Amino acid sequence: MSARLPIKDTIGMALGALSSNRLRSALTMLGIVIGNASVITLVGVGKGAQNLAEGQLSTLGANVLFVVPGNNDTRRRGIETPKTLVLEDANAILEQVPSVGRVAPQITLSETVRARDLSATATVSGITPEFLAVRRFDMAQGRFFSDADLQGARNVAVLGPDLAARLLPGGYPIGKEVRIRNQSFQVVGIMASKGAFLGQNQDDAAYVPLSTMVSRLSGRDPTFGTSLSFVSVEAKDEKSVSAAKFQISNLLRLRHKILREDDFAVRSQKDALSIVGTITGGLTLMLGAIGAISLLVGGIGIMNIMLVSVSERTQEIGLRKAVGARSNDVLLQFLVEALVVSSLGGLVGSLIGLGAVLAVAALTPLPAAIGLASVASTVALSGSIGLFFGVVPARRAAQLDPIVALRRL
Q1: How far is CA 259 from CA 54, 122, 256, 262, in A?
Q2: Given CA atoms 62, 228, 133, 130 in this order, what sign does their dihedral have?
Q3: How do 156-159 and 183-191 pair as beta strands?
Q4: How many angstroms separate the CA atoms of 302 and 308, rounded?
Q5: Among 385, 349, 361, which residue's Cα sits nearest to residue 40?
Q6: More confident site: 378 or 150
Q7: Cα angle at 325 between 323 and 330, to 5 degrees?
Q8: Pairing relation of β-strands 64-69 and 230-235?
Q9: What is the Cα Rg of the chain in Å?
């Protein structure tokens, strides 16, 4: 009975076989390299999208709630925003909900803003002085609206930095005039940069007092009153968020005389993070699955090339078995070859994928990132795929009859 070949010798023979056919080994490895690089890159991009959305939501503050008109179904079906939230609702929330600290009602329109011979389409929002504190905005130049501006419905405006740069390039913008719907507004302040929020550039916007918005731009509906786009609500502290959400919902149900389905929605930062996490998590999973298909194709390539290799090395296998090698030794050698090709390909592909993730993070606003655990899992997966698809060629090599193989010499 022949002795088992030491594992060290088996590994040495496997590496020798791979090095003697370097071009074939490299081409076999290429599918795994592409698959691993795809998985790492796509998962990193998906994670970056999740980080970006979560980062933007975190700037809202943990104790901020948004009250929006219409429920999810009506907002999804409707072309226009439902007019089910009015200024009186915002005032009632401030006065009657004990867990609420500040309330900032808002009306938002898309308008053309002009300054001399320059114009730009931007978001124009009618807001109150509480907006700065509730939404955590800061001023870069000038001042924000005062209670006197709100009560007097003055034609004053605060611009986002991007809009100010487009309409009032160079010089000092404070005190200059812009026009919205043929109404002249004096620029009294410039917001500090806030960045994008869920795809909308908050720096490319104009802000006017809410009373001015109603009297000069949006108007007051004779049926509904002063309809709001949404209301930003600041709970007294983070622990009061759940209570505030419950109390606001009950108050609006009473005010709107709702018996069945709500005509409003109250959303917290936690709710938004949950929704965004679900969406971006699904996106990351889908991108990872697309990359995994490349890994699967690479594994099929390993099996195909190794079947060819078995066919070409029939004489070598027959000679080894004739001088005492056991079937398990031959099986192990081909499995080692498959494992080395797939693992090395996985390592190279992962390095390429990490480089791509770093490039995306450096060259785009997307904070693409991926953890070492994900990289290690991908390399381990590629090695497992190599072993799985290497079994069939290895078994075929191990089952060769040495007498039949030697006849081909």
Answers
A1: 35, 39, 9, 8
A2: negative
A3: parallel
A4: 10
A5: 349
A6: 150
A7: 135
A8: antiparallel
A9: 33
In this prediction, residue 3 carries a pLDDT of 47
Q: What span, in angstroms and rounded, lies between the C-alpha atoms of 297 and 370?
A: 23
Phi then psi for residue 83, to 5 deg, are: -95, 60
In 3D, which of 220, 247, 216 has the Cα closest to residue 88?
220
Tell me the C-alpha distance between 297 and 38, whole Å: 12
Strand-pair partners of 66: 232, 267
Write down the pTM of the prediction: 0.64
Tallying the residues shown for the chain, one arrives at 409
Q: Per the structure block, which two tokens stand in for 229? A: 């786009």
Residue 196 has which token pair? 């994008």
Coil, helix or strand at residue 105: strand
- Nearest residue to 319 via CA among 408, 389, 220, 192: 408
What is the rounded distance in angstroms from the CA atom of residue 112 to the CA atom of residue 218? Answer: 14
**In 269-284, which positions are buried (b, 16+ CB within 10 angstroms) versus exposed (e)?**
bebbbeebeeebeebb
- Comparing CA positions, the residue from 128, 129, 132, 130 lying closest to residue 140 is 132
Query: Which two tokens mark 138?
Result: 């800061």
Q: Rounded CA gap, 16 and 314, in Å?
A: 17
- Rounded (5°) CA angle 98-100-105: 130
Token pair 């759940």 is found at 242
Q: Quick count: other Cβ atoms within 10 Å of Cβ 147? A: 10
Residue carrying structure tokens 């009657």 = 96
Q: Are 115 and 176 in contact (CB under 8 A)?
A: yes
Contact 212, 155 (CB under 8 A): yes
Query: Which tokens belong to 53?
Result: 């959305």
Tens of pLDDT, residues 212-243: 999 988 888 776 778 898 899 988 888 888 89
Q: Which residues pair with 121 in a beta bridge?
A: 112
